[in-house]
């Protein structure tokens, strides 16, 4: 059977065809990254985030929910993985993609579920609380934290990096590289908060808008991933030495990693809906008892 | 049925039960397609050169919608159960309708109209296509039969 159906070819050379590309030959072309130092220096803010949260949680007079602490620490752990062990692979597109997935999607969800603003409101002095409250009521914040804006910032920002020479520039300039990472994290946090954050969010739109924003962001992410896969030979433009097979497996990682992130975000989002729809349970046992004692067996 | 005597047992929400079943059915079939045909058998290709860009767009939307349908469907299902408003027969009917409907949609629109990818490469496609769509049609018919039975019986005993 030699006849191959029309259009049945896939760009040749799966990961196996060019396996030697994985341990990237020391990417001297991208000499912008000092190899050892900044990986561990970048962990310092993560440690500060974790320790600061823990100190605040211990001091909370009302007692802080341990599940929130666990979520925050999990988010910090993901951040640490993304900035520590994965940092030495910046020249490799798969390393970049794994960092993007962890920084922009997984870590923010854990951090958002940790409800840091609520914790701050519990432990801060009243002037600080007032200032936070004023900030939360500010109009610009409502615009930025709208799910649609947040989706544009996160998925759109990613598209901007991957479809323009920004990717190649960030490979060369360390500051831009860190800036891109910071943007992934901030936009991811904003998006997760706007969809499902337990922190106070005045003027948060209803379920339909939030589901729509998630749908749009996830669809955009999936399309971008397949588009990059299809055009791996040319796409992050401006690179001097490229390995299309590595970019293709990075695109597949992006596609399936995006699914995982969408699944988690959707779960968090629908869980808030489920909790809010819960029938009001708390007063009912006492009420039933009271009514039942008035008229025997009317409510059994 | 002792359940229907309890004062908490309200009438089942027929429409919501069916739709929640449809959502879960679509999503489960999409997941089976993704796991079995893309990952385990590696028959389907991730991307195929003949895919036009409009198809890429619709594929992305559909793919994103499937994940949301899975999660949303299960939470809806759990909410109906919690409120004693679930008709499990109708939910099963919806599940089969959704699963079969997705199978046929995938077989006709994704594989043939949009040409996202084919079922398998390097073989005669016709038997595969026929089997694929007939399997979908069988699921849809089973779902329709179950729906019809549940509805004709439901008039009597509160659709449970």
UniProtKB/TrEMBL annotation, chain B:
Keyword Acetylation among UniProt keywords: no
Q: Which InterPro entries match?
A: DUF2243_membrane
Keyword annotations: Membrane, Transmembrane, Transmembrane helix
Q: Does the record bear Chloroplast in its keywords?
A: no
Domain of life where this protein originates: Bacteria
Q: Where are the transmembrane segments?
A: 20-41, 61-78, 90-110, 130-150
Name of the featured protein = DUF2243 domain-containing protein
Could you tell me which species this protein originates from?
Answer: Micromonospora tarensis
Organism phylogeny: Bacteria, Bacillati, Actinomycetota, Actinomycetes, Micromonosporales
């Amino acid at each position: 059977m030699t006849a191959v159906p029309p259009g049945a070819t896939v760009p040749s050379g799966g990961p196996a065809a060019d396996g030697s590309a994985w341990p990237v030959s020391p990417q001297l072309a991208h000499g912008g990254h000092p190899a050892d130092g900044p990986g561990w220096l970048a962990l310092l803010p993560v440690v500060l985030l974790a320790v600061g949260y823990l100190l605040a949680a211990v001091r909370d007079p009302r007692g802080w929910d341990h599940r929130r602490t666990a979520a925050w620490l999990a988010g910090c752990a993901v951040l640490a993985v993304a900035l520590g062990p994965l940092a030495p692979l910046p020249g490799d597109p798969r390393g970049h993609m794994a960092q993007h997935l962890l920084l922009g999607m997984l870590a923010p969800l854990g951090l958002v579920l940790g409800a840091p603003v609520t914790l701050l409101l519990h432990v801060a002095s009243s002037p600080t609380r007032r200032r936070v409250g004023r900030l939360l009521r500010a109009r610009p914040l409502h615009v930025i934290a709208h799910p649609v804006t947040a989706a544009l910032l996160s998925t759109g920002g990613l598209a901007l990096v991957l479809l323009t020479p920004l990717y190649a520039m960030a490979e060369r300039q360390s500051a831009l590289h860190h800036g891109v990472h910071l943007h992934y994290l901030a936009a991811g946090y904003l998006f997760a908060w706007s969809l499902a954050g337990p922190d106070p969010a005045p003027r948060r739109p209803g379920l339909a808008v939030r589901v729509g924003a998630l749908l749009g962001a996830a669809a955009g992410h999936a399309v971008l991933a397949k588009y990059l896969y299809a055009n791996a030979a040319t796409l992050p433009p401006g690179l001097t030495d490229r390995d299309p097979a590595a970019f293709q497996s990075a695109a597949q990682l992006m596609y399936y990693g995006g699914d995982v992130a969408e699944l988690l975000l959707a779960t968090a989002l629908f869980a808030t809906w489920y909790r809010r729809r819960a029938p009001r349970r708390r007063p009912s046992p006492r009420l039933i008892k009271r009514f039942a004692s008035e008229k025997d067996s009317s409510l059994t | 049925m002792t359940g229907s005597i309890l004062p908490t047992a309200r009438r089942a929400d027929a429409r919501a039960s069916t739709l929640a079943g449809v959502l879960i059915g679509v999503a489960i079939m999409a997941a089976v397609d993704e796991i079995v045909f893309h990952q385990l058998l590696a028959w389907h290709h991730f991307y195929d050169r003949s895919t036009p860009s409009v198809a890429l767009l619709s594929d992305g939307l559909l793919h994103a919608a499937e994940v949301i349908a899975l999660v949303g469907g299960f939470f809806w299902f759990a909410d109906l159960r919690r409120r004693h408003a679930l008709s499990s027969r109708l939910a099963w009917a919806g599940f089969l309708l959704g699963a079969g409907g997705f199978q046929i949609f995938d077989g006709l629109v994704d594989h043939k109209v949009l040409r996202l990818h084919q079922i398998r490469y390097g073989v005669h496609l016709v038997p595969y296509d026929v089997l694929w769509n007939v399997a979908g049609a069988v699921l849809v018919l089973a779902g329709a039969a179950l729906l019809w039975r549940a509805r004709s019986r439901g008039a009597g005993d509160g659709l449970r």
